[in-house]
Amino acid sequence: MIYIYYSYISEDNCESLFENELPKFSPDYQDRIRSYRRWQDAQLSLLGRVILFKAIEQIYNYDPSSKEILQTKYNKPYFKDDPVQFNISHSGEIVVCAICEKSLIGIDIEIISEISIEDCKWQMRENEWDTIISSDKIEESFFNYWTQKEAVIKANGLGLTIPLTTFEVLDGIAQINDQKFFLKEIKIDERYKCYISSDRDIDEFFLKKI
Q: pTM to 2 decimals?
């Protein structure tokens, strides 16, 4: 089972979030959050960590605050000595967090916005690009592919060291070298595109707003 938790940022909740939740984390993490100039960026980052910890408490019935979060050399975060896999993404006003055990997991969310479409051509395979430019909703079609590709490379764990043009998304599946990644759209808000990716079939998932 893949668990997906999400939340919207709010300026009204910013002060209480920082007062009540930020002190629960390490001094280094607190300094990093306080270094943001915009409250939106600070809250997006903090809320991702808050959602992760609260979700684990609800799903697995233990307090993860004692667990150390490390990063791979490709900057993918993980818990030291814990089978729980997680991935966090945010865009616009939404933060999402995907959690599971044992399977690789990646999630990406993007707000659908106006873009200079020609500047994005180099990120897509030929078939993907043809689908995008022939769509009646070009931006939506682009972000549909973009979030899938981002979710795949996040699940894979090598991030942007994998050029997006080296693999193709076709019928909800992408392959990097000999490894398949499966995709599922998560419909949270019609203004956004969001996908999860895993190295196992995504038969079902649990979605909850915090």
A: 0.94
114: number of CA atoms within 13 Å, CB side? Answer: 0
Domain positions in the chain are 2-209
- The residue ranges of the chain whose pLDDT is under 50 are none
Q: Which tokens is 20 given?
A: 């009540």
pLDDT, residue 105, reads: 96
- Extended beta strands in the chain, E state: 2-8, 69-71, 77-79, 84-91, 94-101, 105-111, 173-176, 179-185, 192-198, 205-209
Look at domain 2-209 and name its CATH class: alpha beta
Do strands 2-8 and 94-101 pair parallel, antiparallel, or not at all (unpaired)? antiparallel
Q: Supply the pLDDT for residue 74.
A: 86
Looking at residue 67, its pLDDT comes to 79
Q: How many CB atoms lie within 10 A of CB 38?
A: 8
Is 40 in contact with 85 (CB distance < 8 Å)? no
